[in-house]
Amino acid sequence: MKGIIYILKRFLPPYRKYLFLTFTFNILTAVLNVFSLATIIPILQVLFKVNTATYSFIPWRNTDSSLIDTALNNVNWYVTQLIDTYGSSFALMMLAVVLVVMTLLKTGTAYFGSYFIIPIRTGVVKDIRNQINDKILTLPIGFFTEERKGDILARISGDVNEVENSVMSSLDMLFKNPILILIYLTTMTILSWQLTLFVLIVLPVMGFVMGRVGRSLKRSSFEAQNKWGELMSQVEETLSGLRIIKAFNAENKISDRFQAGSNTFRRMSNRIARRQQLAHPMSEFLGTLTIAIVLWFGGSLILDGNGVIDAATFIYYLTIFYSIINPAKELSKSAYAVQRGLASMERIDKILEAENPISEPVQPSPITFHKHIQYKEVWFKYQSDWVLRDVQLTIEKGKTIAFVGQSGSGKSTLADLLPRFYDIQQGGIFIDDINIKDVKLRDLRSLIGYVNQEAILFNDTFYNNIAFGVTRATESQVVEAAKIANAHDFIMATERGYNTNIGDRGGKLSGGQRQRISIARAILKNPEILILDEATSALDTNSEKLVQEALDNLMKNRTTIVIAHRLSTIKNADEIYVMKDGQIVEWGQHTSLYAQGGYYTKLCDMQGNLK
User: Fold this and answer.
1) Model confidence over 238-291: pLDDT tens digits?
2) Do 540 and 459 meet the contact criterion of CB atoms below 8 Å apart?
């Protein structure tokens, strides 16, 4: 029950209006069902002519009888009047009409009770997905190095669907089935408290047996959803690495790996589904057993002739009791769905409740960039080992500086710390003597443009990819940015020009074309600080020439940080910083550094003659 309340408290407040309407119509459904079934008593009395008593009308304000006794007396009086005046057939027809009208009203209110649950169900699912998506956007990049993309996709799809079913079941459990059961039990108590007391002893036994079956579902569902996440991750890896899989003839290996995981997931799903399917036959059997016991006990009361309950009323009592069976079964089925939903909610909460170590300042400082960027005694590690060690660095405004070194030396990490993709553990990074931790992330990142080794593009048009992240960009500005990036000509050569879709991750373009689109995007943003992370290392010679020309246009009058493996691209940098094992071991311009005969000289010699 705690889990149900937890889910409802989190997601239902925006839908109180619909919840109130659902609650109201569910009450009306239960009340109308009681009254519609009550017509069974006079119908049976008319059919079997068991009611030979004489009735007289009692005023509704009479204080000698209860309201219920007065109502029953007056109904019987009215039926006898109909029989005496029009005959038994007409009275029976009128009772049938009343039954039909009451049933019509009951089914109408039942429909509206379900009608107003639908906006809650779809709204909750929308809210959860929106929360997950917004959380993904706010979490630091470091969070996703520990998570598989496919597993995250599984949480936003399969797990959310499970929670949807769980919430729906929770609503039925709390706002429909208990209402029906309570009103039906109240009616049964009014008809015969002795028989109802016996029922209340028998019913909990059924609930206990059903509860025993469902307790292990939560753990099993949690394991199954984790396995589904693994399968989704494998699919994502297959799609991303399809070229390598085919090149290495590894289709069978990937297929065998996926089929093994798929078979495991199937076995888990079988166990869960079989246990879930056990709910209906078990509840059916236990419900029939309970009715048989009640039928025996109630029949004994009638046969004893002690006047506790008559035959027609007992039939009505059984009908009401049978009406309890269905909501009781639904209650047990809801418990199964809730257990599965809570297991999925735990997986979703791993994202929603993940702590973001990169926090916004309470009182942010305004940021300007007129003088320099400073790294002061910067220490950083991802997990246990230090990646950067006591880095001291000053970058003057308008200068082009380069980080070089072997893979793993900390070059890209040093650049990633500037826009706060990660936060340092010791030291500080300052722009014009203002600590970047004291500045709004949005303000800080608005100063910085990024061009990566792998051009990150979206399944959209040329226009929207270039204008990405720039509000109110005009068409002329987009075209101008594309021209500066040497991209305008090949864009216009496509069928729809700037409105042409470039495919998933720009798959319809060559590597050089993708890179020039990402450069055009950076040009349109017009950042004061530019970070180029291996921007040309994956290109052929012809593409590199075009991209380098576009980069030269982009770098004019900007502070530029270049991360390079290919040292020929940074020979003209104002300052080159050589990194090794997370430290800056050498710095200076290319000529002087090479003349020192140190670590930089070795790097240059390994790539050929760069004197």
Assistant:
1) 766 665 676 667 778 778 888 888 888 888 878 777 776 776 677 677 777 777
2) no
CA distance 411 to 585: 12
- The contacts of residue 449 (CB under 8 Å, 6+ apart) are 522, 525, 526, 527, 529, 530, 531, 554
Q: How many other C-beta atoms are found inside a 10 Å radius of the C-beta of residue 441?
A: 17
Q: What is the DSSP letter of 15?
A: G
- DSSP H helices in 39-176: 40-48, 67-86, 88-115, 118-138, 141-145, 149-154, 160-175
385 and 509 in one domain?
A: yes
Number of domains in the chain: 2
In the numeric block, which tokens belong to residue 224?
């199954």
How many angstroms separate the CA atoms of 280 and 276, rounded?
8
Amino acid at 529: I
Neighbours of 265 (CB within 10 A): 18
Verify that 293 and 400 share a domain, yes or no.
no
pTM of the model: 0.69
The domain in which residue 28 lies consists of 2-352
CB-based contacts of 155: which residues, under 8 Å, 6+ apart? 132, 229, 344, 347, 348, 350, 351
Residue range 398-451, pLDDT digits in tens? 888 989 888 888 888 888 899 888 888 899 999 998 999 999 988 888 888 888
* Greatest extent of the chain over all pairs of C-alpha atoms, in Å: 124
Please give the average per-residue pLDDT across 84-90, as a whole number. Answer: 78
What pLDDT is recorded for position 593? Answer: 87
Return the closest-CA partner of residue 527 out of 469, 585, 573, 570.
469
Regarding whether 389 and 422 lie in a shared domain, the answer is yes
Residue 447 maps to a domain: yes
